[in-house]
Amino acid sequence: MTTALADIEAFRTLLQEELGLLVEAEDLDRPLDDFADWDSVLLLRLVTVVEALVGGRVPVVDLLETRTFRQMYEVVGR
Fold it and tell me: Which of 5, 45, 52, 4 is CA-nearest to residue 21?
């Protein structure tokens, strides 16, 4: 794993800096539906950014099954 995704805090920073989403530590386990700005376009941007960081493919099917940002981190941080 790249150091850019070394931990959940780095993932939160990525969400903020690359996607413009302010996700606090206490928000990581909230349902994605609670975030008005979260949509499929941001998911695609996240995939693109993470793939560039890790130099490989992200399992998009697994990401589509996630319900929280913590679950997303668990998928992309593998």
Answer: 45
